[in-house]
Structures are given as C-alpha cells and as structure tokens.
Amino acid sequence: MDEFTQPQSRLKDVHKLLMSAKAIEGIKHSRMACTDQLKEIIKDAGKSLKSHGESSRSEWSENQNKTESRSKFKEIGRFKTALRILEICITIFRIEQRRERNLVVGMDEDVHEVVSRLITNSENCSTHFIVGMKGIGKSTLAQMVFDHRAIQNHFESKYWVPLTDRADEEKNGKKYLIVLDNLSSAEAWESLKAAFRDSTNGSRILITTRYKSVASNAESSHQLRLRTKDESWSLFRQMVHLPSETSDQPELSPEAGEPPELVARKILKELISLNLVQVVERRPNGKEKTCSFPSALRDLWLRSNASFDQRLAYNADEHDASSTFSHGSGKNLPNVLRSCRNPRSILFFDTREGNKPGEEIGNFLSLGIASGHLLQLQVLDLEHVSRPQLPDTIGKLIHLTYLGLRWTYLEKIPQSIGNLTNLQTLDVKHTYICILPSSIWKLKKLQHLCMNQIYRSQIKHQPSGSSLQNLRTLRGAFVDKDSPLKDSLRRLTNLRKLALAFQLNLSQQIALAESLLKLNQVKALKLKSIDEMGLPQDLKATFLSGLENLSYLYLFGKLENTSINKLPQSLTDNTLSASGLLDDPMPELEKLKKLECLSLYSGSYTGKSMPCSKGGFPQLHVLNFWMLKELEEWNVVQEAMPNLKKLEIRSCNSLKVPGGLGHLKTLSELKLKDMPVKFTAEFEKNKEIIWGDIALSPAIIIDGHSQY
C-alpha cells in the first residue's frame, strides 16, 4: 500500500486548507463546493480501493496482474491530479478572497449604515440608493451588504441585477432584496419601476449610482465618502505598497455683497453634490471637517489655471517642493521674487528650528515690501515658521486679507498692523503674544480673530470711535477685571463664534453675561472660568437660555445644578467639563430635543449613578463619557436614545458594564479606552449576551483595537 502514501498526504493537506478557509469571511459557498468535490474524489478512491482489495484476493494470471497493476497506478495518478487541482483552487480562491477583503478598508461604518436601513421594521417596499463617484466602491459596498449575515437572515430571497439587465424573476410574494448596480439616470429608474410590484412584506430595492440627481427624490440614500488618509494608506500598503496622495481644494471666489465664507460653503456643497469634491471626514454633527479634491481633477485644474504664477509656496527643504506651482528653496530665498513677481499669496513651509528661519523670512519681507514686489499680496501664511521677524513696514501690505501666524511663537506684532484695512483674518494662536496692539481696533473689515488663550491674550485699550463691528469669530481671548474687552464685547453684535476664558468673580460674571446676551447671533459659544493657575472656578451660566440661536456650547467651570435646566432648546452639541454637578444631569439634558452630540468630561458629574429614560435624547447621535471617576452605574432603558450611533467611554475607573446596551439598536460604534482590566474582561465575557438578539451589532474598539 506504499503507493497510496502520497495521495493520503495530499488529502490531509487539502483538508487543512479547507479548515483554514473557514476563517475567511464570505468563502462559505465556495468552501462547500470544494468540500463536495473532495467527497467525490474520496468516493471514487473508496471504490478503487475496494476493487483493488478484491483483485488482490483473486487468483489472476501473471498477465492479468500486470494489467491490473497498470490500471491501479493509472487510478492513483488520477487521484493525485484531482487532489492537486483541488488544492490549487482552494489556495487561489483564498488569495482572491483576501484581495477582495483588502478593497473594503474603512467601509465598516458604511456597511452598518446601509444594512441597518434595509432591515428596519417597515412593511412597505422601499428603495435605497448608494451614491458616489466612479471607482469609489459603490458596487463593493453593495456586495458587502448583499452578503452580510444580517441581510442573509432577514430576506428570504435576493437578486443581483447588473444593469442594463432587467429584474423579471418571479418573487412569489417572498420578502426579497434586489440590488440594481450602476443606474445611469433617473429616467432609467422610472422605466424599471414597473418591474417591481408594490408589496407590504418588507422587501427592499438597493440601487448604486454615481449621479446624485438620480437619488434626489429617494426615500433613503447613502453618500459614499472617500477613505481617510489612514484608511487609504492601509489599503495601499496591503495592495500596492504605495503611499496615498492628498489633494488640494479648489479656489473659491466670493460674489459681491455676500460674506466670502457663505459663498464658499455654497460652492463647496455644490461641488460635493457633483462629486467633484469628496468629503473625507465629518464632524459629530454631520458637517464637513475634511475634504479632498480627486487627483485626476486636480491635475486638470492645475493645468487649466493660468494664475498660479501669482501664488508662491516656499519650501525650506528644496527636496520637499512637491507642488507644481512651488518656487524657491532655503538656499535662494532672495532670488524667489525674480521668478514670481507681485504674488497674490505666499505660503511658507519651513519647520527649521532656531533663529535663522525667522531672520531669513524677515529680510525677505523687508526687501519685497521695499522693492514693491509684495505690495499686491493678499494672503501671507507663516504657520510653523520659527519666530519670523515682521518688519514695521508690514502695514504697507494694504491688500492683505489673511495673515497666519499660528505656531510661530512670536512675542509681538508691529503697531502698523492697524494699517491693514482690508485684513479679514488674523491668526495668532500658539504664539507668545500676550497683548495685541490697540491699532487692532482700526481693522473694520476683520472677521476672524484667533488669539492665544494659554498666554491670556488681551487687546490694548479700545480707542474711542473704534470697533470691530464685522467680527464674526473670536477665539482664545481672555478677560479679567482690567480687560478692555470686557466692556467692548456687547458691541461685537455680528459675532457667530466666541471662545472666551475669564477670571472673574460672580458679580463680574453677571456683568459679562449681560454683554453676552447682546450677542444674539452667536451660534457657537465656549466659556472657561479659571483661576490664576488655570484651574476651574465657579461659572455663572443661568443666562444661556436667552441665546436662542445657540447650537454649540462648551462649558468649563463649576456649575450650579439649576444651570442645566436653563440651557437653550436650540442646542445640537453640548460639552460639560469640570462642572462638579452633584445631581444627575441626564433628566434635564435628555429634554434637549435637537441635541445630537453630548460629551461629559472630567469632573462634570460627581454622582455614582446615571440612568437614561424612555424617549430621552430623541436625536442624539454621539455620546462621550470621559474620566467620570465617581460614576459606578449607567443604565439604558428600552427606547432611550433611539438614534445613537457612536458611544465612547474613557477612563471611567469605577464604572460597571452598563446595563441595557442592547437597547441601543442603532449603535454602530462603541469605543472603550483606558478602562480597567476588570471592566474589559467582563465586557468581553458578556458582549455576546448583550447583542445576541440584535441583527446588526456595533463595531467594538477597545484601546484602539477594533473587534467585530
């Protein structure tokens, strides 16, 4: 029987491959097919072995034995070949399957969103769209949804229709899911509708299209985003070992009579709707945080834009100048203006340390202003340049609209800055500037002022008749009893965003509150009440109900318990930190019907228990608990937070595993960071029980490690 040793060994190898294939998601049906083939081979082998055994017991002539021997070896060769082919097929399929799985990096949230929409309890037949630019992964996402376990369990029958095929199969009244891949126009969908009978058994139609207009009247649509930088890098590293490339956003020109940022937002939304700009990342409230310009369109845009000779990107490292419209290097800065005269914008990319970068750029600015070559400058961005020496003549740049000094560690700016009468944005965050010159008050067109709260930035006394009436954003300002800004705030009536730290007693805070109530257009407000060491002190916040347009609120400081029931109903985003609340804030906070994001940070609540009641937080999408050291119990009842998508619990060292997590049916992501070992061990033990009866459980991330 030695001749059967090799087939037996190969048979074991094939069996191992089949068993390891179990670990690969989506391989189930092909594994079954391979198993069937293996059974057939074994069946044939069994017959041959039986025949071989019988022949060996019979009396055969010498010629007959020779004939049988040749036949036997021929059979063995056939078995070897069949097993080898089967082994190759399994191996290749495992490679292909892994390759397919590489293509879905970063799509977990998209899958969860689409699947949850398809399996929601609705009896009427409904249509759902997946929208995105060509090649972004619409069909891949649809395939993942199509093959998802929750979809398999929910629908009795499924059909995949690559258009332009027709879906004419008989559905026999069963609950079905049909995927129409790559629909090209609204007219095409209108012509296909007749193929689908109206039903009340919960059937669904899922459509992929690159045209947003096709889904404009849809009951439900999912816009597929670009992958983030990290997701792109992970994907490329797996597949082609190349780094991803980010792209710039297109230039936006304001229309006459409208604030530039409003025009920019309108154009951005239009470009997003046309898939010419892709949203890479969104804020918790759903607004765009990071956008990307597709590289192919970017290259075309750069080639067709003839005005880039007026834009200068200066790189200190000549090997780092990757942009096609960059000029200059750290070695020939004085010669830069010869190749780019009268630039409209200059962006410096110079992260060298020491005094030399600041001296070089100071000399460059002095020379350019003196020669007249920089007098048309509109944008000057010196972010991360070490201590640039701003010349006193900077006031001659009268066309300047943007001056970026963030992370420069400057200690002062010239008084002549008050001559920049067209300046709209001044950013001195992360500098050593403690006092801005009084000439700042002359900048009547200034709309955005970012100061440095850490160094208690203040503005010198306001001259009579001066006012920043057009100021829309004020961040990082500090107010104490001697601050001129304390009495000037009430006149900044166009403010939309205000981030303010102060060191005031309660009576002085009452006066400040009266000023803040005059700012009835403020939509985002951040207040920090601190002492001389920067630690939280009492914060008077009962006046906030008077700010009817407020949507974003961040409070740092010790609050009275009654402050919570004075919060405006317009809030969509609320953060509490160091509040020192003794009473559970949830009964009042859950009454905020528009609230979408709630964060309770260190010291905000000092109690031990915090239940969430039925019907509370109807619109809440994001909930964060950070460093609530005294909290021991948090329980969620049925129908509480019916739209919660993301939950993060961080450094809550006394907390037990929350009860009722399974009631959060829409939860797509749960993060547990820096939690005690005992907590995570108990959570791991019970997570199958918590979500056992839920068709779609959330993604679970423990200390940065994702588990599904």
Automatic annotation (TrEMBL):
One of its GO terms (biological process) is defense response to other organism. It comes from Castanea mollissima. Residues 109-168, 173-240 form the NB-ARC domain. It holds the Pfam family LRR_14. One of its GO terms (molecular function) is ADP binding. Keywords: Repeat. Gene3D superfamilies: P-loop containing nucleotide triphosphate hydrolases, Ribonuclease Inhibitor. InterPro entries: Disease_R_plants, LRR_dom_sf, LRR_R13L4/SHOC2-like, NB-ARC, P-loop_NTPase. This is NB-ARC domain-containing protein. Residues 377-672 form the Disease resistance R13L4/SHOC-2-like LRR domain. It comes from the Eukaryota.
